[in-house]
Design goal:
This protein has 2 domains: 139 residues, Glutaredoxin; 127 residues, Up-down Bundle (Glutathione S-transferase Yfyf (Class Pi), Chain A, domain 2). The longest helix is centred in the middle third of the chain and has 25 residues. The chain has 9 helices and 4 strands; from the N terminus they run E-H-E-H-E-E-H-H-H-H-H-H-H. 42% of the residues lie in helices and 6% in strands. The chain has 307 residues and is α+β, with helices and mostly antiparallel strands. A 4-stranded mixed sheet has the order 2-1-3-4, with helices on both faces. Helix 1 runs antiparallel to helix 6, helix 4 packs parallel to helix 6 and helix 5 crosses helix 7.
């Protein structure tokens, strides 16, 4: 099992542009499919709200527990922002891919941005979707961009570092099959957290300074899952994030923004990770602890394990 098979693949299949000539922006035409398990899909939920597109692009949040048959759209996540799928014939996510591309043999990953008019997938790459949401937000609502031109390079560098030095090593450690591989990625994760804590202490309230940017949209979903999920499930147990003062302050700050906090459901996320078929666990139960802040994911009491 590859480390990124939980909810995301490195090579995605659909890279069309929402708001372009082929897929002009129209209220009610497009639909977003996500899951509370998946941090990559979580990015798009956050950005859908930040960009004020939540009244124009529908949302179906699949059931959190994934099976070999794929994400369950019929038994969806029950929440105020999760509606029934408009593609009534598709009970599970692979059927959406089959409708969009008959004979499709790739992975049916989340997120999916679907065009209900042409019955095709516009895009299934989270980084591209949130960029497109940001552009539409500027064009249609005159909202400030989260990808300002004078900070594009720095934002891109931070997103790359998050992916290469933190996010990928999380899954590589979790799915490691030998001690050496596990320790290599384990050390990489905590080296990055040390660096990030120092960076946040020196740079300002957000990852690239005073302004909220797309780098924060990339960072929050994985950081918010760390204490409750990755610490135990993937044995990344050297520290909790509350042991990093600047990261803790940063997550608390993001937890005050409704688009971030209201889209986080720690219990549903834990259920997804600990009960899904493709995780390094027997899937029999969900751990009761640790107790975390439901808006930031931070443990409420430090229980550091040094070593």
């Amino acid at each position: 099992m590859k480390a990124n098979e939980i909810c995301h693949v490195e090579t995605t299949a659909f890279h069309n542009k929402l708001g372009g000539e082929d897929y002009p922006f129209e209220t009610g035409r497009y639909w977003l499919f996500t899951s509370k398990l998946c941090p990559f899909a979580h990015r798009t939920e956050i950005m859908r709200t930040l960009s004020r597109l939540n009244e124009h692009i529908g949302l179906t949040i699949a059931g959190s527990v994934q099976t070999a048959e794929g994400w369950n759209l019929e038994e969806r996540y029950e929440g105020p922002d999760s509606s029934s799928s408009p593609v009534v014939a598709a009970k599970r996510l692979p059927a959406i891919y089959e409708i969009a591309a008959p004979g499709y043999t790739g992975r049916a990953s989340l997120p999916v941005l679907f065009d209900t008019k042409t019955n095709t997938i516009v895009n299934n790459e989270s980084a591209e979707i949130i960029r497109q949401f940001d552009e539409l937000s500027m064009q249609h609502y005159d909202n400030p961009t989260l990808y300002p031109k004078n900070k594009c390079k720095l934002i891109d560098e931070m997103i790359d570092r998050l992916g290469n030095d933190f996010i990928t090593p999380i899954y590589r450690a979790g799915f490691a099959s030998d001690q050496q591989t596990y320790l290599s990625y384990f050390n990489q994760v905590f080296a990055f957290l040390d660096t990030l804590d120092q960076h946040l202490g020196a740079s300002g309230p957000y990852i690239v300074g005073e302004q909220l940017t797309l780098a924060d949209v990339h960072a929050y979903p994985h950081l918010a899952r760390f204490d409750a999920v990755y610490h135990s499930l993937y044995r990344l147990n050297q520290k909790f994030l509350c042991d990093y003062p600047h990261i803790a302050d940063y997550l608390g700050r993001l937890g005050e923004i409704p688009a971030f906090a209201d889209s986080l459901d720690i219990q549903a996320t834990k259920a997804g990770y600990f009960l899904s078929w493709n995780q390094p666990t027997n899937g029999y139960f969900v751990p009761a602890g640790p107790i975390v802040n439901p808006r930031s994911g931070l443990t409420l009491t430090s229980q550091s394990v040094q070593g």
